[in-house]
Amino acid sequence: ISSTPTTIRMCPPVTTKNWIYYQPLVAVGNSGGAVQIFNIGTRQLHRELTVHTCPVKGIEWVNHDKLLSYGYPPANNTGLVRNELAVTFLDTGRVVPLKKNETGYSMPITAVR
Known about the structure:
It is a single chain. A hairpin with a 4-residue loop joins strand 3 (about 35-40) and strand 4. It is elongated and about 50 Å long. About 25% of the residues are buried. It has about 110 residues and is mainly β. About 0% of the residues lie in helices and about 45% in strands.
């Protein structure tokens, strides 16, 4: 693990529909804004991607090869932050920012579904 872990999320479970391509992956977000994907079956780092410019606060798997993650820097004196929200495609490494470093401040994102 390259930096202090800030969040961790296991991939969706194996099912009768995904067992052919299933890999037991865990996503670890860290304080440097990176998301590391580990294969817990092989105990190897599968992929590491720089996704955010701030600590990763949460990760949710969209499917077996796509993640939704969010992060934000420390809050200002009013408790507001500049949220970052991104979708990451694990097969290509492509990161699509959905919300990044907006000029306005808002309440911190606390969960995504």
